[in-house]
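Reviewers of the previous submission asked for a worked example of the structure-prediction workflow described in the proposal, so we include one complete record here. The input consisted solely of the amino acid sequence. No template or homolog information was supplied to the procedure at any stage.
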Amino acid sequence: MSGKGLFGRLFGGKSEEPAAPAASEAESDAVATPPVVEPEAEVEVEDIVAADDPRPAEIIAEAPQSWLSRLKSGLTKSSSKLTQGLGDLFTKRKLDDDALEDLEDLLITTDLGVGTAARVTKRLAKTRFGQDVGADEIKQVLAEEVAQILAPVAKPLEPDFTRKPHVVLVVGVNGSGKTTTIGKMAKLFKDQGRQVSLAAGDTFRAAAVEQLKVWGERTNCPVFARDTGADAAGLAFDAMAESASRGDDLLFIDTAGRLQNKADLMEELRKVVRVIKKQDETAPHDVLLVLDATVGQNAHSQVEVFKDIVDVSGLILTKLDGTARGGVLVALAEKFALPVHAIGIGEKAEDLRPFDADAFARSLVGLN
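From that input alone, the workflow returned the following structure tokens.
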């Protein structure tokens, strides 16, 4: 599959040029003695494969939907909450100060953010104040304003394939979907004919390592892994050297996300970045923060934490199909202005797709 289709626009990369000379060898940071960790329950590969798609077999067997239909379906919980609220507020109601205040409150409680709420009410106050308005008219205005907020951050991930490899560090709290997202992206790039490797840098969770190995088998991507509790920075260093020796196009590095001990997390991730730069001072070339949409406004604090630790270059929002809080993406875009490369609305690889501002905005307010 060429990189010119829908996935190509998301994960297309820059034009091919001769590979740069290999980076000179450098001494790794001294690798500390692996910490003692509590043993985790053994995770069977079959269990992970089964858990990857928890839907009933009859649903899996349904004819595939278009992405737009799946997006609308995935955002049903979010759009229903908003649509019901607008319907309750505006049934040929005169747009007065009370109505504007109620609308602003609704938009804030649906996680769209204070700024978005203010933009929408300001526009309506300017154009429709004192007039009767209905829910459909409000939805149209809301969709237009949301799309304007999101358009500047809807940017594809464009690896520079002149680097061998282009290193993508993937960060996020445990449970956000980091490992699954890496597997999905690996498949997309492999489908474009790229050589991709994966590094299981979440060394404290045996389940994460096993899950990444499953994705490696599915996508025919080499997976660099070590025993539970191994030094993550040393693993990243060796994975880069091995990936470079193969001439890989891409290396995705998974990481830990233990926010309950922020100091340890910060030190570990900073060490990973520091050691990566010993192999290639320009790496990591992308740092993707994976966010679980179900956490709602807590996603703001997660962005703040990881921006303090590493130079986050872009966002991927997962699990939008499992929450009524999809509006948080709008608030994140307005507050942080970080590129949003992709969104996830399901468990399968095809459920991770490009972030389209207009399609998302219309689906979010129930117009598509």
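The chain is about 45% helix and 10% strand. We consider this example representative of the routine output the project will generate in years two and three.
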